[in-house]
Amino acid sequence: MNPLLEHQAFLTRRQFFGRSAMGLGTAALASLLSREAFGAAAPTQNSKLKTQNFSGGLPDLPHFAPKAKRVIYLFQNGAPSHVDLFDYKPKLREWHGKQIPDEVVGGRRFSTMTGNQTARPVLGEITNFKQHGKSGAWVSDFLPRTAAIADDLCFIKSMHTEAVNHAPGITFFLTGSEMAGRPSMGAWLTYGLGTDTQELPSFVVMTSRDKEASCGQIFYDFYWGSGFLPSKFQGVKFRGSGDPVLYLSNPDGMSREVRRGILDDLARLNELKLREFGDPEIATRIAQYEMAYKMQTSVPELTDFSKEPQSTLDAYGPDVKRQGSYAYNCLMARRLAERGVKFIQLMHAGWDQHRNLNTQLKIQCTDVDAPSAALVQDLKQRGLLDDTLVIWGGEFGRTPFLQGKIEETKQWGRDHHPYTFTLWMAGGGVKPGLSYGASDEFGFNAIENKVHVHDFQATVLHLLGIDHERLTYKFQGRHYRLTDVHGNVVKEVLA
């Protein structure tokens, strides 16, 4: 039998479709390996960045002129208590120890920790509030450094969500769905807008937790996953100890030149497979090998704080040199931003204060207050805040009523509260010195200018020059987007 005919006769359906996609695979490989294919001839307009705009995103993006070029998301896992930190409600102290009115609660759903609790005494704030700056923003005395930059911040005090538990709530904020499996916000942005650096990943994640390890929050990989997008768009997690990224160092006895030769040989072998099957994950593998090689040089320089002024280190606080701390990660976020990383996701656990509000809230605020404020000020001083969007907030708030018994002072706590809570944003095209939206007199329900999670996501995308209804990806016969089928841009917070 003719060998060619024999080969065709035994060609499987998978092989046929894989080889039919050869043209697409070759184009993908070219875009990954060729600097010119990134459309990066001209340097960026921002002289503070040391990189060029290598793009690689979708050809029709951005849809309009962006206000922000990058995002630093300071995600506070466990949900900070809005009524103790930002949403001042004198009614809480007036009603302290009394049952919260049934008409306020209105049959709302809570977590299993208070879902069957019939006694729901109001718990007055355990902090003291003052107004700050020309804007007169109310901020707790637990956050003095944040209060000092109140005029740079845009507070949204009418956030509300649908989830009552942590993992679904965090997943909803970061992926637009309570169920794991959708692309995260950073993956969507990298897919749509491409990259501004070839030396570092475009989407970087760092995690930290309270020193006392008071809550058992888990950092699931799907919080920064690519979902059904090609895996090259997922976030790269920097570790909190040792080498920030595994396997960057060459094995003993292998020089950088030898490693370069091995990578070149691997690229050629993978190119053959890519031409044969057209699988985009093969292209991803090639890109990851190349990025790892470049990070051997870029990461040590990135993590070297020796040239940072002592005044800068002092501003971030005493933990700034402790790898894996929130302060260290905040300074790293600034250094990543000025090197062209597009989405930087910091996740800090420790806010889940069900039984330790009187002790842990103060500790947690001390850990994050100075680094968060220093990051905003540092970006501002370097001319980066105007086009860097900084976000600070958790997955929901905490209940205005007490979890437990009012006489058990040492075990005071608050349960999860999705019906209103506060987050703040700075830079990147949002109005500074603004407090937007309002909750009722108990801080229980959002009642004025309500902002849903999908509205927040649509607004973030808008600031980056993206129409949230047009950034889609077809998967299993349906066009998906970050905001699902919902969301409206909150135009009132735009500068």
List the helices and strands and how they pair.
Blueprint: H1 3-9, H2 13-20, H3 22-33, E1 55-56, E2 70-77, H4 82-85, H5 90-94, H6 102-105, E3 129-132, E4 137-140, H7 144-148, E5 153-160, H8 166-175, H9 185-193, E6 194-195, E7 203-209, E8 236-238, H10 256-277, H11 280-302, H12 310-316, H13 326-338, E9 343-349, H14 357-381, E10 388-393, E11 397-398, E12 416-417, E13 421-426, E14 434-436, E15 438-439, E16 446-448, E17 451-452, H15 453-463, E18 473-475, E19 478-480
Quick gist of this model?
About 7% of the residues have low confidence.
Summarize the structure in words.
There is one protein chain. With 495 residues, the protein is α/β, with parallel strands linked by helices. It has one domain (22-33, 73-493). It has 15 helices and 19 strands. The strands form six sheets. Strands 2, 5, 7, 8, 9, 10, 13, 14 and 17 form a nine-stranded mixed β-sheet that branches. A two-stranded antiparallel sheet has the order 1-6. The protein has a two-stranded antiparallel ribbon with strand order 3-4. Helix 3 packs antiparallel against helix 10, helix 10 packs antiparallel against helix 11 (280-302) and helix 13 packs parallel to helix 14 (357-381). The longest helix has 25 residues, at 357-381. Mean pLDDT is 87; it is low at 19-53.
